[in-house]
TrEMBL record:
Binds 1 FAD per subunit. GO terms for cellular component: cytoplasm. The keyword Iron does not apply. Keywords: Disulfide bond, FAD, Flavoprotein, NADP, Oxidoreductase, Redox-active center. The keyword Disulfide bond applies. Its EC number is 1.8.1.9. Its cofactor is FAD. Residues 5-298 form the FAD/NAD(P)-binding domain. It catalyses: [thioredoxin]-dithiol + NADP(+) = [thioredoxin]-disulfide + NADPH + H(+). Belongs to the class-II pyridine nucleotide-disulfide oxidoreductase family. SUPFAM superfamilies: FAD/NAD(P)-binding domain. This is Thioredoxin reductase. It is an enzyme of class 1 (oxidoreductase).
Length: 315
């Protein structure tokens, strides 16, 4: 059967690429499916400073490119396709995409997660017109302008620091009275003269005709509402949103167990509740979502998939 693979990996972020590398090295017929660009969230990261052994000035795209090289060196097949449905009810798993149908003895789900929106009026309409979820992608558009960064975790504060290379002023808008980012990251932000803070504050509306022109803030303690308008000289400003992620797991509703948020529970061997189906990376329930943990997940999933196939499929 031409479209029968030992392992089909859904997603080509660090977890999926790592799984592909280990699966292909084990001489399994391996297919990596990706609907968008390769690399997942890391492809939008400007600096990779906390990945052990990474070379100086390593970027998300450069690290991804090397991972892809390794995967292809060992013979894994990569295909761009949008998956429409999966059927994990039988021993041979079926994945149906826009470009074709794929069958697999084992499946590794590595679809990752996507940024959560604020959920306020005007956000969707002005996405790409001043509202962004990727500082690396869009920072240059706001050179010498003001920007607001929504969020208080590691990603929000790190991206705020990065944005100071371009914007003349960066204001972090956080719904609490203290940041949730790691202390070392917080210290950098507090020392940066270009960064200000709006505490206990949310955005209730984003306004503009073609571009972001104003934003409405609400103080959660006093309930005071203020509208900030772009200066006449600038005409616009940026709003960068980093308020968490949503797992890309809707496809698996009814096929495997998901938690209340949509993340996939696994054991330490990346096994889901369905035999032969594994999950790796940001899409699964875990305490730390970083490149280093994603690639570890992918390696474990591939090794476990190999063991599963050896025990359940006769030559």
């Amino acid at each position: 059967m031409e479209n029968l693979y030992d392992v089909v990996i859904i997603g080509s972020g660090p977890a999926g690429l790592s799984a592909g590398l280990y699966a292909a090295r084990a001489k399994m017929k391996t297919l990596i499916l990706e609907k968008n660009k390769v690399g997942g969230q890391i492809s939008t990261t400007n600096e990779v400073a906390n990945y052990p052994g990474s070379i100086p000035n390593a970027t998300g795209p450069s690290l991804t490119a090397r991972m892809v090289e390794q995967v292809e060196e060992f013979g894994a097949e990569r295909k761009k396709d949008t998956i429409k449905s999966v059927d994990f009810s039988e021993k041979i798993k079926v994945i149906k995409g826009e470009q074709g149908e794929y069958q697999a003895k084992a499946v590794i789900i590595a679809g990752g997660a996507e940024p959560k929106p604020i959920g306020c009026p005007g956000e969707i309409e002005l996405t790409g017109k001043g509202v962004s979820y990727c500082a690396t992608c869009d920072a240059d558009f706001f050179t010498d302008l003001e920007v607001f960064v929504v969020g208080g975790g590691d990603s929000a504060v790190e991206e705020a620091i990065y944005l100071t290379k371009f914007a003349r002023k960066v204001t972090i808008v956080h719904r609490r009275d203290e940041l949730r980012a790691a202390k070392s990251i917080q210290e950098k932000a507090f020392k940066n003269p270009k960064i200000d803070f709006l505490w206990n504050t949310t955005i209730t509306e984003i306004k503009g005709d073609g571009v972001v022109e104003s934003v409405v803030f609400k103080n959660l303690v006093t309930n005071e509402v203020n509208e900030y308008n772009a200066s006449e000289e600038d005409g616009t400003f940026g709003i960068f949103v980093f308020v968490g992620y949503k797992p890309l797991s809707d496809l698996y509703q009814g096929q495997i167990t998901l938690d209340s948020v949509g993340y996939i529970p696994t054991d330490d061997n990346m096994k889901t509740n369905i035999a032969g189906v594994f999950a790796a990376g940001d899409i699964r329930v875990k305490s730390l979502r970083q490149v280093v943990t994603a690639v570890a997940d992918g390696a474990i999933a591939a090794v476990q998939a190999e063991k599963y196939i050896e025990h359940n499929f006769e030559e």
